[in-house]
Fold:
Amino acid sequence: MPHRGLWVRIPPAAYPRYFFTQVSDDIRRLFCRVLRGLGVEYTWNNWRTVSVARRRSVALLDTFVGPKT
Structure:
């Protein structure tokens, strides 16, 4: 019997997250270099969107850009 996979519904996060979308590869690389320099963990959602979603990283980014409202 073929494996059909398991779909799990994940509730929305109870804390803010950051998404940075940019078509320019140079600007995305610069942004990621700065994040690494600050110690902020990030992931790629797709080829043009960088996500900062770990609570510690969001809190750290908040100290530099101010909390999201």
Remarks:
- The mean pLDDT is 82.
